[in-house]
Amino acid sequence: MASLARLRLSRKLPLRGVRAIQTSADTTTKIQETPEDSSKPFAVKLHEDSFRAYRCEVPELEVEVSKDQLLTMYRQMQLVRRMEMAADALYKAKLVRGFCHLATGQEAVSVGLEHGIVPQDRVITAYRCHPFAVLRGGSVAGVMGELLGRQSGMSHGKGGSMHIFTPTFFGGNGIVGAQVPVGAGVAFAQKYMGEKHATFALYGDGASNQGQVFEAFNMAKLWNLPTIFVCENNKYGMGTSAERSSSNTEYFTRGDKIPGLQVNGMDIIATLQAVRYARKWAVEEEKGPLLLEFVTYRYGGHSMSDPGTTYRTREEVQRMRSTQDPIRGLQRYIEEWGLASEQELKALDKDAKAEVDAAVQVAKASPEPKSEDLWTDIYYKGTEPPTMRGREREEVHHY
């Protein structure tokens, strides 16, 4: 028993000489005066421990951002958080049924990712897909309609929380880890078609031990695919801490010959810089796949059926909310760097809330799918067969 205790202790100790990743949301400093033109970039510097690298160099700590970009990111982070808060309330009112997994606390990952890629890049993720769906061309109204199972939903009310798509967002996916090989397949298609774009395949620390994840790693490296494998490490896979489920919790090192980067996933400027670095690696430099591990935190439970406090303390959640919140971190940057006043940011908050409230009303007013809608969206438009048989041989639908 003593040797087992020593083994468990040794797993939690950091490697000698290796500094821990910084997870504060507000450690970036401004090193250049802000230009009068709000669209012009200026330089800031990330904390020296914002990144840790495996088989590659860390990104530059000096980052160029603009006032317009930071304010846009702030509003988007507020918007997707308000959306998740509304989904929470609707679920508790029993208007949202089935599974529902919220990304409250992880906004720096989705918004930072969107600002580091281009519209033609592809994104695919798992359960916490609502923010990505909005940022990749969808709408809050479309997400809320889908959660309520209404025709106004992005999948016409027939998909639900984990099945929302856009032309460049290949959805949330309900099978643990299954989106990772699909993402590698999308990247294969991009390379086959000669596209100069990348696919970002996101998964959680809970899915990191799936065999198909490692199979996808192998194929992506073998074929030098422009795949960025992104682990959103929010510390808990369902109700199990990373330390209890993974012998190696440094997920950015688990790609074998695939280089990796661990990132402060609570500072949106760090996530932005990491995504820029990853895209340049895979697309411009054609170096093949790369692993990104965003160290982040979810405030709620794994899903709406999980209170989130049986495997961690309320004090832990409150400490993260009060000291490392990604939105508050960006708010501090904006105010201290003189980009906007507290009143101006409150106006953005109010605008985001109004958009979400209006989207909820649109979703509630939308009708439920019709019975004949069961026969639609099975085949890609234009490829449907002349007829299709239903559950019974006599159930035949003519297109």
Could you please describe the fold and organization of this structure?
The protein is of the alpha/beta class and 399 residues long. The chain has 2 domains: 44-304 and 319-368, Rossmann fold; 375-399, no CATH class. Helices cover 38% and strands 13% of the residues. It has 12 helices and 13 strands. The protein has helices spanning 2-12, 67-92, 107-116, 130-135, 140-147, 179-192, 211-222, 242-245, 268-284, 314-323, 326-336, 342-365, and strands at residues 29-30, 41-45, 51-54, 62-66, 122-124, 199-204, 227-233, 236-237, 240-241, 260-264, 290-295, 387-389, 396-398. Strands 3-10-11-7-6-5 form a 6-stranded mixed beta sheet, with helices on both faces. Strands 1-2-4 form a 3-stranded antiparallel beta sheet. Strands 8-9 form a two-stranded antiparallel ribbon. Helix 2 (67-92) packs across helix 12. The N and C termini lie far apart (68 Å).
Name of the CATH class of the largest domain: Alpha Beta
Shape field: globular
CATH architecture of the largest domain: 3-Layer(aba) Sandwich
Please name the fourth-level CATH homologous superfamily of the largest domain: Thiamin diphosphate (ThDP)-binding fold, Pyr/PP domains
The major beta sheet can be summarized as: 6 strands, mixed
Average of the residue pLDDT scores:
94
Q: What is the helix fraction of residues, given as a range?
A: 25-40%
Total number of helices: 12
**What structural category arises from helix and sheet content?**
alpha/beta
Total DSSP E strands: 13
- Stretches where pLDDT falls below 50 for ≥5 residues? 1-16
Radius of gyration: 22 Å
Share in β-strands: 5-15%
Tally of distinct domains: 2
Following the backbone from N to C, one meets helices and strands in this order, namely HEEEEHHEHHHEHEEEHEHEHHHEE
The span between the termini is 68 Å
Strand order of the biggest β-sheet = 3-10-11-7-6-5
What is the CATH topology of the largest domain?
Rossmann fold
Function: The pyruvate dehydrogenase complex catalyzes the overall conversion of pyruvate to acetyl-CoA and CO(2).
Organism: Hypsizygus marmoreus (White beech mushroom)
Region (Disordered): 376-399
Pfam families: E1_dh
